[in-house]
Amino acid sequence: MGVLENHVNVVVGGTSGIGARIAELSAAQGATVVIAGRRTKEGWELARRLGPASSFVAADVTRESEVAAVIAHAVDRHGRIDSLINSAGVTGFAGSIAAVEFDEFFRMMAVHAGGVLAGMKHAAPVMIEQRSGSIVNIASIGGRLAGWTGHAYAASKAAVIQLTRSAAVELGEHGVRVNSVSPGAVATGVFAKSAGLEPALADRTAGSLQPAFAALLRQWQPIRGTATPDDIAPAAIWLASDAARFVNGHDLVVDGGISAGRPISVALSEGPRIGAALTAAAAGADSRI
Fold first, then answer.
1. For 112, which DSSP code?
2. Considering the entire predicted model, what is its pTM?
3. Contact, 39 vs 16, CB < 8 A?
4. pLDDT in tens, 59-77
5. Which site from 33, 174, 230, 272 is most exposed, i.e. has the minimal number of CB atoms within 10 Å?
6. Is pLDDT at 200 greater than 80 in this prediction?
7. Is position 153 annotated as part of the catalytic site?
8. Which residue blocks in the chain are alpha helix, DSSP H?
């Protein structure tokens, strides 16, 4: 028996990347899954693969009415919602603060913060009436640590983390838990999509990013290698499940240790260079005396 047996699980942003893997794992753990997203072909194909009880609803999370329709579909079809996972996301410009475009900033806020807010707004009354439910919002270490993402992305994901806490202290009194997951660098197709690659091709070739990611992260990530959606989805499933029944208002970081600090081997390797620099500086000072 899976940890989501007899659960109705709504996955918004479930047509690719982390969201699609969460939908797949939800079904594998016994849930009936409602998938929502903009990519209709991929959404219907995934729902078909997950079985006849699963379904897909086309939705753009920047349009509140479409998010409301997703929740209504789940309730009309299944009579309840046990968990909502908000996973819709986009990437964007990562340059200087002086070059940020306001349209870009507001697009990020609309998708990430606005999409999460819309999902919680319309799922909350259903879960309050049930006196049970779990909401899991996909955030990012970019919302916790500066310098890892563009300004707009960082601000929007920080908003997701704080919206999660804010909703948790309200809904917890009604038996509804709200938590977030903050992944580190994850090899998904979203990076290639932001560079202009066709979405389906970007998803199929996401694995090719792993060597480049691993090389870049060696200076910062204690656990070697690169994360994939398979590393993030189980965290979301656990938070959605009854196994996490006393976890509320928490941001679960899944980043290979990046937010804990740099790998000690990197720090130790810098010791000789720092020592040599200090010795040279001291010798220069002696020569001037």
1. I
2. 0.89
3. yes
4. 999 999 999 999 999 999 9
5. 272
6. no
7. yes
8. 17-28, 40-50, 64-78, 102-108, 115-130, 151-171, 190-194, 199-204, 210-217, 229-240, 264-288
